């Protein structure tokens, strides 16, 4: 794929690194000469110094051929206008970093942004769960935040120790979808028994996640 | 719970907001008077102006009673030292923002950091997947990055259209763990049939995720 | 009318002054406290300190009741996003300052901007004409730049001195639409004679303006 | 013509661009090396780094041969002194940007400034009219602000629909000087009829413009 | 007298101090609030915060009644425009600090500046003489730099030791105008004798000063 | 002579220019590379980038051979320390700019400063006289400020019009030491008559200068 | 004692703290209002905002009664001039921080500085010894750097293990002046035996310190 | 030895200078290009531009082979993290500058810091003693601050003048360990007599130092 990244800060840098590892073609556009130099010295890709709110800059970067443009400058409004401009110029797929979490949904839609990225807001949700529920080993949100997958450790006190999957009662809209036994990922069937020391992955709709978690621990 | 947040930037602000919504007690410490004033004006919590690398600041904030301290200043080293100091002063649980992704693991462990947060690195991985694999509707990483859960849309071209779960061959270490039919979350059993228009959630170990995805689309 | 001005710089200030003189209700929004204070001290209107890219700021300013919003901050992208947000929130009429003259037309349309203002570009065109054509006393552009109205002084050398309007040949798409004689504005008819010392106003389509001017001087 | 522009900001840049398109000789003087480099890279003209308040700088730029000097630095006083110096050194024609609208007229005259440019003040007047009178499609000021030309759309409600020019009563000092029918510019005679959908251009002295406008809509 | 000083830096401050000591009425205008506060705290006079390039500021300061205005801001052009404005508004006497020594004379005259002050250039001339001619005890320039008065010490080696005034030959356009004997100022007559240890004051036209000095030492 | 100037600001620049014109050898030392480059480009002398508070810098500049060092940096204390260091290293003659007029005399003497320069204070005294005594055409201070020489214009109202020098009574410690008639400098004798239109130079001890002036006008 | 500290940075702050603990009277002078406020809030002493290079500031602080003044601003030259001024005004004892280690000795003496403090240079010497000679447990310099006292641990490999003081040969100008046995400080006599595990303190002239150290380890 | 210094400020510079003089191999790491250039120009060692909180920077500098790393950046937290990282990467000996004197001891120990350097705190203690006890000529702290060595001058008023060492009573935990007679260092024995004009070095435990001093003077 051919991907244009606008903004060579930490996020742009890491993204470029990952995409290069997967052998995509990547170009980074940044206004700041120092940032351009730094990236050129560390990554093996094309760096274009320029202002991506200008049509000519995006055209020079090959926006018409790009499979995606990712707007990651430090300013929401600039990212939004770049996204709109990129869409008008033919970019297939536009991902945009937005710092403010309460931007009007309709505004973002109208700008033609395909993927909205909220690094701070995402991190905030993640931290909040992990620090307030220590028995949760890890968690992730899926389906645009509608569902949640939690990893829990089964201790001797767990309500479901020794039970088989079919014997466990849990609210509809949730399920134990996997287990780790000695770090092996196992997809359980009805007869699988839950043992002390296993880690289980539970999928649950977001609004019942809390209830599900309590039914198990 | 009683939670101390150090650093009142965007991330600290959003985290405080979420924790307050869940009725935890939160205190924010920041060195900058303007940030303190801004937060005091917008959130209903205690804001303490001070330097959290000083013992007396953390003690005044009640570190001994705190269930968790979250270090979110803009500087990695400051966050790391605050974390170590907080641990020494008795904080149960310490979560720390680290910008650089290649910090020596042993260093972080030695500092007593329980949860490491990489907002930029996390966002970079997420964006990378979504823009290069447009058929993936959403995705999340779980088990500290060892496994991945993908949401895919079933189109007429999908290799598994019309098949029952039991008929689908997929690599071990992976499973279709849920379906959305008309936005209802369904935990499939062996007889469940995969229809056009459904969205499926697939769990897979990270190293085979790509193979799994291709076996389905 | 009720008009919201975003940005309290020179342009916003002068606009507010004119609108107040015509007895409209005006509110100015600016992020900078010093600018807010300065305006409050000099103009008799409501000044709101805030960030107009946030829905709540515009709502607090009464965007739903506003007849117009004028975005005049120093940054094009911010003006553009404010404009889009204002349109979505119900502003009837949106005028926006854009510094760059080559912004994609479709982008501006998509943002719902009703009136685009280019102070620098407008001034550049105006200066260019006046300094390179000293016989032009003043000029203005009308019909979104498609036509031009020039004021010329009739000297003894003018090709049309002593002629009646009906005797003057000039390219189609142009006309002498008015005269000043001793500062009195006169709308000529076919018999009006052009005398030395008069100033004439000529309307011409932009593309023939130069030809028209030369046919007269 | 040979034209010296002092100040390479947005306004100076656009002006140079227009003048070059019309094949004038242009030189830009700016104190800032970065601005000089940027312009050299984008426009095909001579750029001179220097301080235009110094005689030697203007002489080196060829002030004696220049047909005009345009002072466009960001500071009123600097522009004013450059203008005076340029006049003393023999510049034929001097145009000067002045931000403050209330500079003493006699001061400006004494400095020998031929053309005073107020981009912000001009834009403010323009915006004010367009947003408060939505039926005005465009407007311009002519004769140093003494007269105004408005473009209005004729709707079914217009008071003059179906009337011939000779039947329309309007205050003296005003006239319908042109019409657009399907984008064709027509100079009306007494028998021309005003139809729905046409756009008319009305010339009016500034002090009766409002009255004229109301007599038509 | 009533004197307006614009600019409250070191020079403005010292000037105000001297004028107050001589019981003149003094007002200082400065744009910077901190400078205004500092002066208010240290001198017993009126301090007005404002921009002296604006008519209203000067009028508020009482320019019409002022016997003199002294423009001492740090920027030549600002001083020049203030001077012109002050003259137009009726200031009797205008003194202006100019840093650049090669400003076109006609420009300064046209601005109506009565007294031009070059502190740096004046100091440079003074230092130059004193350090290169150690026998010169002090010197001063008079008549707008056309003449010079030097103080010299008479040593045993002086060519004029023991001579009477009438016996001393010196170029026309010069004269020994005074002597100090034991710090008493004496106006010599023809018979006065020059003794070792006396200090003499010699007046000389600038262009022969060097020759005169050498004829004596 | 060989002269070291420390500090390449306006004052240092003008001083170097004068000294070069008189064919002295001059070196300028400045810490700022940009200033060094600017001076190198405009004056024909040696410029040394360095910190003149360091022994090695002054030695490299040839302090041992220098006839004089002039300390003109923008900071009083730095100038003072450079002066002391220069004296210790053998500089014959040290001239030093001091901004604050109330520095303890003994401190300056102890530092070995030969000539103290107060450009701002000097200018303040000069301006004060000229603006408050408009009949004084020019004036200068001599003998370290103990005496004053004034240039006055003789008008019809002057008390001494038509008188001969011998007839004029004026306080002891003062004398009319020269006249300008049609710009010719004349040293008067007892019979010289004072005519309207002449300009006279009066020397007076500082403390009686005011009295003398009044006895004449 | 009554002690004036000029400069409220880290060093000034710690010094004040120590002096207050020993119940001296301390005043801190600093130019910066923020620093003054911070110190006032944390220490119980008089803080005077002012410029200590001015006579009046030091007099207001009571320089005539002060037993000592310590100049600790961040700039060497300012410290030096304050020191000279303080001495002239009667300060008994003046201590001054100097960053540059190679300031001309005679210059410092001439300024009347009693105690010169080089925190960075002192720290550099200390670090250098400790890191390059790991067997040295601690060390200090005494007699203005002429002598050194080292603390060494006696291991089984030490050349002097089991010897009595009188049996140990070491260069003249050195001596084992004390021992720690189990943290008890013991002054040895000739019969004292050196045992493994003891720590010895050796005094040595600076130039033989290295030789002495090697004769023991 | 091979020593890595992080931070090229004054302290780092002086340390490098001393170590080079003793013929150690030294490398300086600094993030700032200007500082790197300055040091390269003045010292003969390797300068590496880089961020020492990154593993790769320290590895490139040869941390595995280094005998010591000294962290001297201006920020405590950065120094602390570099120290921890260096220890993890195998540095034998780590010395670290810490500005705040009240850092939790356990925190510093946990970071593996071998030598803690407090230049400001050290200087503060030193100044405090010297200015409050003028009879102390010099003093130093040894054994990590547990003991103190003072140099005192023996005057006629001293309580121990004329006494032999064995006759002097002083608290246990203290001893006169050396004398200077005419600048010769003498290790006294019991019969040594204390004469006027000698300087004595007294070693004392810190807590009795004051008492010891008073017993002698």
UniProtKB/TrEMBL annotation, chains A, B, C, D, E, F, G, H:
One of its GO terms (molecular function) is potassium ion transmembrane transporter activity. The keyword Lyase does not apply. GO terms for cellular component: plasma membrane. Keywords: Ion transport, NAD, Potassium, Potassium transport, Transport. Gene3D superfamilies: NAD(P)-binding Rossmann-like Domain (3.40.50.720), Regulator of K+ conductance, C-terminal domain (3.30.70.1450). The keyword Transport applies. Residues 134-217 form the RCK C-terminal domain. Residues 1-117 form the RCK N-terminal domain. Part of a potassium transport system. This is Potassium transporter TrkA. It comes from Candidatus Iainarchaeum sp. The lineage of its organism: Archaea, Candidatus Iainarchaeota, Candidatus Iainarchaeia, Candidatus Iainarchaeales, Candidatus Iainarchaeaceae.
